[in-house]
Design a protein that fits this description.
Helix content is about 35%, strand content about 15%. It is built from 10 helices and 9 strands. Bound molecules: ligand BJW and zinc ion. The site of ligand BJW has 34 residues, from helix 2, strand 8 and helix 10.
Length: about 260
């Protein structure tokens, strides 16, 4: 464990040293991030207890097409509140370290791909270029009648759910349970996982498919695999290196000079 940024135990130090070796010697890196990477920016993870008005709702049930069909006002309010929280947050040291890593890889002619399940766009804000957004983003809203999609930066919305000029209601441009992921994003992610030399899974529970399978795709194609998470996940027992700790602490440490 990294603890709270104080003492690093010898086991973790050795794992950090091995990850640095992987990073130095690989020609292509694919990184998958999840809600844990944004947690240190103050954005609750998907499985964190909900607070206030939302305490009685299960996020797994709100993030469904059925919930939106049943109560569009409720679901729209939930996303609006999350957008409001996000607007007040900044990228953390983990986001910034990943943007720097991309620069270093690309400057040395090596392939780097960032795949995120997060809908908050904090990677882009930190300077990451072209992250693949597997689950979309709550900054885009799409009309359920005419399909027009546009960026909605205004928070909070004056009315719920927001309406399109055509009169239709808009929904967040995210991927809900039971919905297909954007085809191009998924194809890019699959191809990148299956052709990289190093795959890193960061701050994700490894439970939600198909993103959860990307690490296996990489390993089955011969990539080295690394995981960083506060808690053990289904990946922890089989990846090459698993470190328990916070990405906002560990990523800058890994990228710092030994
Ligand atoms: C830290 C940290 C710190 C904290 N540092 N770490 C195969 C088998 C079984 C089921 C399925 C299957 N294939 C498809 C399914 C169904 C379903 C699914 O996976 N269900 C599972 C729950 C079992 N998948 C789908 O429906 C997907 N669609 C699909 O596959 O279409 C085809 C199909 C449909 C139906 C049947 C079969 C095929 C769509 C999935 C869409 C997920 N959407 C959401 C909501 C997005 C919008 C929103 O945000 O509201 O995406 S759900 C939610 O989970 C969100 C996240 O992106 C996603 C992943 O969560 P993530 O990032 O892992 O976060 P958490 O909160 O779960 O975990 C945080 C982690 O961070 C924890 O581990 C902490 O320890 C750690 N952490 N702080 C490091 N500082
Ligand atoms: Zn419309």
């Amino acid at each position: 464990m990294t603890g709270t940024g104080n003492q690093i135990d010898p086991g973790t130090q050795e794992r950090i040293r091995r990850i640095r070796d992987f990073l130095r010697t690989c020609d292509s890196l694919t990184v998958l991030t999840g809600a844990g990477v944004s947690a240190e920016s103050g954005i609750p993870t998907f499985r964190d207890a909900q607070t206030g008005l939302w305490a009685k709702y299960d996020p797994m049930e709100l993030a469904t097409p059925e919930a939106f069909a049943h109560d569009p006002v409720l679901v729209s309010r939930w996303y609006d509140e999350r957008r409001g929280k996000c607007a007040a947050c900044k990228p953390n040291q983990g986001h910034l370290a990943l943007a720097r890593l991309q620069q270093e890889f690309e400057a040395s002619g090596r392939r780097f791909m960032l795949i995120t399940q997060n809908v908050d766009r904090l990677h882009k804000q930190a300077g990451s270029r072209n992250p693949v957004e597997l689950h979309g983003t709550f900054w885009l809203w799409r009309c359920t009648s005419c399909g027009e999609e546009r960026e909605e930066r205004e928070v909070p919305f004056p009315d719920h759910p927001p309406r399109c000029a055509c009169g239709g209601i808009r929904r967040p441009g995210v991927v809900w349970f039971g919905e297909s992921l954007p085809e191009a994003a998924l194809a890019t992610a699959w191809q990148s996982a299956g052709s990289c030399e190093l795959f890193m899974s960061l701050g994700t529970s490894g439970l939600v498919e198909p993103a959860a399978s990307l690490a296996r795709v990489a390993a089955n194609s011969g990539a080295k695999t690394v995981e960083i998470n506060l808690e053990p996940t289904p990946l922890s027992t089989w990846v090459d290196i698993s470190i328990a700790g916070a990405t906002g602490e560990l990523l800058p440490l890994i990228l710092s000079e030994p």
